[in-house]
Amino acid sequence: MQTNTGTIDRQIRVLAGFALIALTATSTIGAWGWIGVIGLITGLIGWCPLYAALGIDTRKPLKEAGSEPPAQPPAHPSA
């Protein structure tokens, strides 16, 4: 299982999931808040089954070797 959620996506899921669970545990919102468990788990493991089914990937693409131009040597001042 390969991750398909990026760093910011994962952080939002964990925070929102934790908030929903906390609000439900304190009876501030109804039982529907337990759905925050899904966000918490998917944020912690970095994989979302819905994203996988829809082909969504929010990770940053990895840079391929050789895709960047070669570094230029520093210019030497003429004497």
Give the number of DSSP strands. 0
Structural class: mainly alpha
* Biggest β-sheet strands, sense, barrel: none
Fraction of residues in β-strands: under 5%
Please give the radius of gyration in angstroms. 21 Å
Distance separating the two termini: 60 Å
List the helices and strands in order.
HHH
Could you tell me the mean pLDDT?
89
Question: In one word, what is the shape?
Answer: elongated
**Number of discrete helical segments:** 3
The low-confidence parts are: none
Q: Give helix % range.
A: 40-55%
Task: Write a compact overview of the structure shown.
The chain has 79 residues and is mainly alpha-helical.
Task: Reconstruct the topology from this structure.
Layout: H1 7-25, H2 36-45, H3 49-54
Helix pairs in contact: 1-2
Structure explained in plain terms:
With 79 residues, the protein is mainly alpha-helical. The chain has a domain at 7-54. The chain contains three helices and no strands. It has helices spanning 7-25, 36-45, 49-54.
